Amino acid sequence: MSRISLENGECTAHSVSDRLLKLLKTCGPQQATEAGKVLGTTGEAARQQLVKLAKEGLVEAKAETRGVGRPVQLWQLTAAGNAHFPDAHAELTAQLLRTVRDKLGDKAMELLIDSREQETRINYKQAMIGATDLAERVRRLATIRCCEGYMAEWSELENGAFLLVENHCPICVAAAVCQGFCRAELSVFTEVLQARVERSEHILTGARRCAYRISAQ
User: Fold this and answer.
1) How would DSSP label each residue in the chain?
2) Which residues, 6 or more positions from 177, have their beta carbon under 8 angstroms from its beta carbon?
3) Nearest to 139, CA basis, from 162, 116, 157, 117
4) Spatial distance between the Cα atoms of 190 and 195, rounded to a whole number of angstroms
């Protein structure tokens, strides 16, 4: 079961519209009735709010066939809805990275990535002080990443491994310009968790989220 939920932690949204947007971001397309249950309201109230968000261009409805019977209506985020979440000044960052690569070369870009990786590693290791097992380290990492805007959550799998999910990437545009950032993050995760870390889903390859399977070394 997820340890960081829609109703828990500093990443919790407060207005109904924000909570709906976060639900679609973290859990994917939803029916109005499903969304209403999660938010503690009625399906009709959720539908009315979704219709309002659709008029603002943040969500859209899509029909999906599920077995026999009439298709169900699923609500999902639009590109504008995804842009509602933190992007860490994405376009400016992307422009700066392109300038570094074009004007100073690949070595300068690698130096930039290495510097960020080292700073991240130091900060994350500091946060792990006192963690006595892998579960605690994963929990702390999820909390850190959530506070950094990744909308992270974690769960323990039946085989004793763990799953770390990041429903949003605030540096996605920068990572698209240079995937070295993703490589560096995977390296940092492996070191600070003292575990084997495998990326099983990746936003940059078209997935809705980034997901990591974590197991003891």
Assistant:
1) --SS-TTSSTT---SHHHHHHHHHHHH-SB-HHHHHHHHTS-HHHHHHHHHHHHHTTSEEEEEE--SSSSPEEEEEE-HHHHTTS--SSHHHHHHHHHHIIIII-HHHHHHHHHHHHHHHHHHHHHHTTT--SHHHHHHHHHHHHIIIII-EEEEE-TTS-EEEEES--TTHHHHHH-THHHHHHHHHHHHHHTEEEEEEE-GGGT-SSEEEEEEE-
2) 94, 97, 98, 101
3) 162
4) 6
Structure token pair of residue 150: 């990744």
Chain-centroid distance of CA 150 in Å reads: 4
pLDDT in tens, 33-72: 999 998 888 989 999 999 999 998 889 998 888 777 788 8
Query: pLDDT by residue for the chain (217 residues), tens digit each?
Result: 333 333 333 444 467 888 899 888 888 889 999 999 988 889 899 999 999 999 988 899 988 887 777 888 999 988 778 777 765 556 667 777 778 778 787 788 788 788 888 999 999 999 999 999 999 999 999 999 988 889 899 999 988 999 999 998 887 877 776 677 888 999 999 999 999 999 999 988 888 899 999 999 7
Rounded distance, CA 142 to CA 210, Å? 13
How much of the chain, in percent, has pLDDT values that exceed 90?
41
Answer whether 19's CB lies under 8 Å from 41's CB.
no
